[in-house]
Design goal:
The chain is an alpha+beta fold. It has 3 domains: 42 residues, Pemi-like Protein 1, Chain: D, CATH 2.10.260; 72 residues, 2-Layer Sandwich (Translation Initiation Factor IF3); 200 residues, Methane Monooxygenase Hydroxylase, Chain G, domain 1 (Up-down Bundle), CATH 1.20.58.220. Helices cover 61% and strands 11% of the residues. The protein has 9 helices and 8 strands. The strands form 3 sheets. The protein has a 4-stranded mixed sheet, covered by helices on one side. Strands 1-2 form a two-stranded antiparallel ribbon. Strands 3-4 form a two-stranded antiparallel sheet. α4 runs antiparallel to α7. 28% of the residues are buried. The mean pLDDT is 90.
Length: 331
Amino acid sequence: MELRKVQITGKSTFIVSLPKEWAKRAGIRQGSTIAMFPQSDGSLLINPKDNPQSNKNKILNIKNLCGETLKREIIGAYLAGYNIIELIANPISSDQKIIIRDICQKLIGPEIIEETANKVILQDLINPNKLSIDRGLIRILLISESMYEDAIKALKTNNIDLAKDVSARDDEVDRLYLLLSKQFNSILQTSKLPEKNELSMVDAFNYRLVAGNLERIADHAKKIADISMSLNGKKIPDNILENIQQVSLQVINMVKDAVRSLTRSDIEMANKVLEENNIISNTLLRLDQSLLELSADIAVSLGIIVDSIGRIGGYSANMAEVAINSFLMKP
């Protein structure tokens, strides 16, 4: 750390000198223009204007890569903030190209701009700051919440179409979560918060943690919907369905309150979610025991659903703990 004294020229202009070694490394000369970014935590970030982070390129040799390994490589480059990803092999197989096209559909931004036998170039065509981290979090909450509610409704009404729709919506949550993760990685790499952003660096970190829990909640909503379809109209006692619906209503309210407790800095609401999770755990234990009276195949399927509901409650508690920690870190 270097300290500089502030000087005043004229009546209102503040002047501070730049560290000489840093200026040399950054290529700053007399007449150079630098960019200044006031941060929400009161700090000021200074970057050479001619040194943008917007044109990062990555070359990936995908020879012998396939399936999930290839997907992870592409997603990893995307999350690292590379705007242009060049995939090369000699040649790129048809199966690899199918995976590349599929992953582009599951990410927000990347499009194929060039394709040959030995090369595929992806370019990120979206400005990730168009969707702020806080807005992205609320969007993920709304989709996850609706998925969970509709999954339980599909189970109770044996609505196969609704269950299929829930399963399809999981991809949208994944897309938003990866975009939000990319934004957070960009903040870490540049130490710069987006302009017109009211979040601090710590807020961005906590929002990223909560988004991860919401993404897992969406995964469990999808699991419930998939099991609902696999039951294929098998008769489930009305009292069991009613009990599942009642506890599900309590859990989804916990999810909403956990996120609200973070965005509103409401520590009382967060503690209430933690208390409710303990109560829900006992309710789910009794519900799970009641399934023993059913046929084995139905009992196993519903047992998985009850487990997913419990895990969603656990994720709500995780988010409430993040909210409490966030509140206590503020002055």
